[in-house]
What does this fold into?
Amino acid sequence: MNFISKIWSQLFLIERPSISLSFIRPIIALTTIFYIGPTLCHLGDNYFPTAFKTTDPSFLPLGLIELVQRSPNWVIVLFVWVFAVFSFFFLVGFLSQLSCIVMVLSCYYFQALNSFHIGSTLSWDILLVALFLFCLTPYHGDYFSVDCLLGGREDAYKRRRSYFLQRLLQLHVGFMYFYTALYKITAQGNWFTDNPLYYVLNYPSAGVTKYFILRDYLMNKPQLCYWLGVGIVVTELSMILLLFWRKTRVSAIYLSFFFHIILLLTLDVPAILFFVFPTLALLFINPDYIVDWIEQKRAANAKIGPMILIYDGDCGFCRKCVRILKVADLFGVLKFVDFRGIDDLSQLHPSLTKEAATKQAYLVEPSGKLFGGFFAFQKISLNLPMFYSLAPILYFPGMGLLGPVFYKIVSKNRFLFNKLLPN
Amino acid sequence: MSYKTIRNVAITVFVICWSLVYHYMSIKHFYLQPLVSKALPRVPMLFPPAGWIMFFNVDDQFGEVQVYGIKGVDLQVKGSDVYMRGKEYSLIDPHDVFRTRTILFDNIHRGLMHGAVGHQKPFCDFLEHRFPYYDAFEVRYVGYPSLTKDPHQRIERIYYQCLTQRYIKDELHQ
It folds into this structure.
C-alpha cells in the first residue's frame, strides 16, 4: 500500500515547477485563435442567419444548441469580441485561468451556433481536452504571463505546483497516439489488412494529399506504402512507451516533431495537430531539469557580467518597471542600478552624467556600449524571453524615429502611468 | 486535516474520475457498445462520440462534390415530377462557396463540401445567398470507384438541383 501511495504521489501529487505549462499556454492560445479566428472573419457565411449551419447533438446538449441558435446578431458579435479579448488575455497570460475559461465558453458558443467549421474534426476534440485541463488551475499563468509580471515574484519561473495537470496532459498525448493507432488496426481500421497510405497518395488533386516532393515516386510503390503504413502504426502504438521511458524520451519528442512536420507537408489535415502534439510532447521534459538549466544560465551570466540598467530610484513608475523587468529577467542578464545611490556615474560609463540619467534610463552593455531611453528597451527586448515577442514591434522600420517620441510621452506622464501599475 | 491533505485527496479523486471517463469515452463506441449490444451513455461536450479516430479506414475509392451555378432554366413537368435543365452551367470553385480560410491547410481538400450536401434546403439557401446572380444550382457527386486499379474511371451523378427563391418568385409566379 505504501509503495502504491509513493508511486501515486510521484506521478500526480508531487510538486514541480510549472514553467513548462506556462511555456505551453501561449502556443495553446495561438492554436485556438488560429482555429476559431478564421471562422469569425465571415460572420454572414458562418454564424448569422444567412450562414450555412450544422449542429452536432451527439456532442453538445440539444437544449444548449437550441438556446444558442436563438441568438440575435448583436449577441453573436458580442461573443466575437468576448473571444477576441479573452483569447488575447489567455495568450499574454492576463487573468490566465479566468481568460481560459471564458475563451473556452465562447468556443462552445460558436460550436453550438454552427459546428460545420469548428466541431467536425478530431483535432478540435484533442485541443478541447487540453483546454479543459488548462481551465482547472491557474498554474499556466505562473510565468511568461502578465499575471507574473504584475505579481512581482522574482522567483516565479521556479514556482512549484502539483504535477497532476502536467501528467494528465502527458497521458493525453500518449493515449492520443495509442488510440488513433489502435483504431487503425482494430474496429473498422484497415491499416494492416489493406493499403490506406497507397490509396491516400493516389487521391486526385481535390483530395487530402498535398503535392510533395516524393509523392509521384511513392504513389507507384504499393509495397513500400504498406510498410510505411505499418511503420506509422507501430510508431504511434509505441509512442506512449517511448515518451514515458526516460531513455527514449528525447528521441520520442524529436520523433513527434518530425512526424507532425511530415504530416503538415504532405496532408491537408488541421494544423492544430502540428501545434498541439509536438508542443504537448515538450511537457515530457522534467521541469526540474529546465529550472536547473535556467539556474546554470543565470550563474554563467553573473560570471560574464550582466548588462547594467541605470534608472531613477526616486521615480515610482521607474521602480515598478524595474520590478517587472526583474521578474522577466529569466536568465539574469540585467543588473539594476539606481543612479541616486552612486556619486560618480562615469564609473559605469564615461559619458554618463546625473543630469542625463534623470531624463531617461540607460543600458550599459558588458562591451561598454551605451543605449538610452527607447533604445535601451529595444536592446532589453532581445535579451528577456518574455519580451521577445515585442522585439519585432520595437525594431519595426520607423520605430527608430517614433520610439523615442513614445518614450518621451511616457516619461513626461510617468506619474499618470504609475497609477495604472499595481503597487 | 491539513490543506495539503485535502488538496491531495481532491487531486486523487479528480485524476481517477477523469481517467475513467477519458478511457470510457475513448473505447465506448467501437469496443464497449458492441460488447454489450446497446447504446451506452455519453459524456457530452468534451470527447468525440466515436472515439479518437483519424484516417483509420481509407479505401480505394474517392468522391468529391461539385456545385454548378445555372443561368436560364427550362422546366419540364411529367406527371407529378418536375425536371430542370439549365441553359448555362458554371462550375463554382468550392473555395468561393465556403470562404473561411484555414491556416496551413485547405479545408476544402479535407472534404468540407461532403458535410454540406446532406443538408439540402439550408445548403441551397446558402448558395442563393452567396451567389444571388444564378437562377438555380446543381450539386453533383463525382466518384472514382478504384483510384489505383482504374484511376480514370469516373462516375458522375446529380445529387440534387435547386431553384432559387428569387427565380421561383420572379419567373414562375409571372
About this structure: The mean pLDDT of chain B is 92. Strands of chain B lie at 62-78, 81-92, 136-144, 155-163. The radius of gyration of chain B is 25 Å. Chain B touches chain A through 61 residues (CB under 8 Å).
